[in-house]
Amino acid sequence: MAGGGAGDGTRKHCLSAELLVNVTPRETRVAVIENGMLQETFIERANRRGLVGNIYKGRVCRVLPGMQAAFVDIGLERAAFLHASDIVGASQDPADDATPDPADTQHIARPNKQQLTATDQPRPMKCITELVRDGQDVLVQVIKDPLGTKGARLTTHISIPSCYLVYMPGAGTIGVSQRIEEEDERTRLRDLVSDLMRRHTGANQSATTVVDDDALTASLNGDGYIVRTAAESATEELMLADMDFLAKLWASVQERTRSAKAPDMVHEDLPLVVRTLRELTGTEIERTRVDSRETMSTLVDFTERFVPEMVDNIEHYTGDRPIFDLYGVEDEIQKALERKVQLKSGGHLILDQTEAMTTIDVNTGAYVGHRNLEETIFKTNLEATQSIARQLRLRNLGGIIIIDFIDMQSEDHKRQVLRALEKSLDRDHTKTNISDVSALGLVQMTRKRTRESLEHVLCDPCPTCSGRGSIKTADTVCYEIFREILREARQFDTEKLLVIASQEVIDTLVDDESASFAELEAFIGKPITLQVESLYSRENYDVVLM
C-alpha cells in the first residue's frame, strides 16, 4: 500500500462516485464517474508504467552547483533530477527538514519559490556540494514522472501512504490532514497516533536516507506520520493495522536497499487499479465495476485486508456492451483530445497545451443571451468555470495555466467568477493555486503536475506538421521550389532538373502556377521535369540535378 498514486491525495469533499475499470493484457484504464459524468481517466500501459512513488537506490552522476541540483542515475533512459531542497538535511535549520506539511498528499511537498507567499522569506539552504557528491549512492523516491524531454523528479524525503496514514521515515512529527476540520477529531487522531507510535514495536527506527559505500547513514530523528482525510472516525484497530503494514513495508525496503547495487529499484508502487482505490478511500464510492475477474479478485483481496467496508461495492462487470461505453466514456476521452470544448449555452473553450504552459480561451460563440452584453459575458464565464475545472482533471493538465475569460467590467462579476472557479476546483484532488484577475483580464493558476497529460499519453506529435498544428500552403511550397531551382541552376552546371513533390504541389505547379513555371524554365534555359511522390507530405520536396 505504498508510495505514489493515481493522484495527490484523497478528495477535498466526499462525493458520490463510481469507478469503471477496463483491463486488457497491455493496458489498464480507470474512469472516475461523478453524477453520471466522466471526471478523470487514469491509464497505465505495460511498457510505460508510472514511476511516482517508486523508491530507488540511485547513484549521483553529476552535481551542478549553479543549479543547486544533481542528476541521479536510477536505471532509466534519462538521469533523474534531484534539487537541493528535496534532500534531507538541506536546510540550515534542522527543524525545517523535520516538519512535514500536514496536507493530505502522498509526497510531502517542501516550499519552493512558487509556493512562498509575499510575507515568507526563503530559508537558507546548504550548497548542493555539501549534501551529495559524484558517485555517491542515495536512496530516493520519484515524485514526478518523466515529462517530455525532462527526467523524473526525485526526493530523499521518503513518504509511504496507506489508506489512513502517510509514513515518513525520519520526519519525527505527527500531522493531521487540514481537510479534517473538526478540532476534537483532529486532537483524537493526533493523540491516537502518538499513543500507537509509543506502543508500536520499532516505531522509533531511524530513517535510511543516504547509502554511501553500502553503509547506511541514518537520520537521528524519529519517524513521522500524516493522518489522511480518510482516517476521520477511523478506529484504533484500523490505524494500528495501517501502522503495522507500513512498518513491515519500510523494513523490507531497508533490507533490499542494503543488498541492492545502484542503480536499482528497491520498491515499486501498487498497480494502477489498487492505487486508485487506495487514493479514493474515504470518498463515497457507490460502486466499482471491473471487466476482469482476475483484477476484481485483486481488488477484493486488497479491500478485505485494509478497507473491508468497501468490499461490497466491488462487482464484476459482465455486460454485453464494453464497460467504457457506459456513460459515454470512450466519446468523452475522444472529446478531451480536441482543442475546442462546447458549452451548453453555445459558448466554447479553446485549450492549447504547450511546453511552457496551457492556455484556455473563453468565447461566447453562438450565445447571445437575453439581456445586455455584460450579462451575457458574465453568464458565459460562470458556465466556463465548471467546464474548465472538469477539463483540467479529465485531461490532467498541470503546470502554469492561463485562463482568458471574456473581459468583464464589473468588479463584482470578476469576484463571482473567481469564486465559482475555486468552488469548481474544490473537487480536484490535485493541488491548485489561483491568482486574482490581472490587469489584462487573465487568471493565472498552477496545478501540480506529477504525470503526463492525457494527450501526451495517448498521442504523438503530428508527423506532418511536427506538432506545430499547421502546415505550409501549396502556394508557399511552390515558391520555395522556385527559389531552390534558381539556387541550384546558378551554382551547378546541369542539363536539366527534376522536381519531386506531393500530388497537391505538382497540381499547383501545373495549373495555378503554370505561367510562372514556364517563365522560370525559360529564365534558367534548362528543362524542368515534374514527378509526383505519393509518400511525400505537402511540405516535402526535392530538386534533383540531372
What would you say this structure looks like, in words?
This protein has 546 residues and is α+β, with helices and mostly antiparallel strands. It folds into four domains: 16-47 and 274-331, eRF1 domain 2 (Nucleotidyltransferase, domain 5), CATH 3.30.420.60; 55-268, Ribosomal Protein S5, domain 2 (2-Layer Sandwich); 336-453, Aminopeptidase; 474-545, Hypothetical Protein Ychn, Chain: A, CATH 3.40.1260.20. The protein contains 13 helices and 26 strands. The strands form five sheets. Strands 18-19-20-21-23-22 form a six-stranded mixed beta sheet, with helices on one face. The chain has a five-stranded mixed beta sheet with strand order 3-2-1-16-17, sandwiched between helices. Residues 1-14, 98-120 and 201-221 have low confidence and may be disordered.
Brief summary:
This protein has 546 residues and is α+β, with helices and mostly antiparallel strands. It has helices at 94-98, 128-131, 183-199, 236-259, 272-279, 293-306, 329-335, 373-395, 411-425, 454-458, 474-491, 503-510, 514-524; strands at residues 16-24, 27-34, 37-45, 55-64, 69-73, 80-83, 137-144, 153-155, 160-161, 165-168, 174-176, 208-212, 215-218, 224-227, 264-267, 284-290, 314-316, 340-342, 348-353, 357-363, 399-404, 432-437, 442-447, 497-501, 528-532, 541-545.
CATH architecture of the largest domain: 2-Layer Sandwich
Strand percentage lies at: 25-35%
Give the C-level CATH assignment of the largest domain.
Alpha Beta
Number of strands: 26
Average the pLDDT over all residues and give the rounded result: 84
Question: From the helix content, strand content and strand pairing, which structural class follows?
Answer: alpha+beta
Shape: globular
Please give the radius of gyration in angstroms. 29 Å
Q: How many DSSP helices?
A: 13
Question: Main sheet, how many strands, which sense, barrel?
Answer: 6 strands, mixed
N-to-C terminal Cα separation, in Å? 69 Å
Instruction: Provide the helix percentage.
Output: 25-40%
Strand order of the largest sheet: 18-19-20-21-23-22
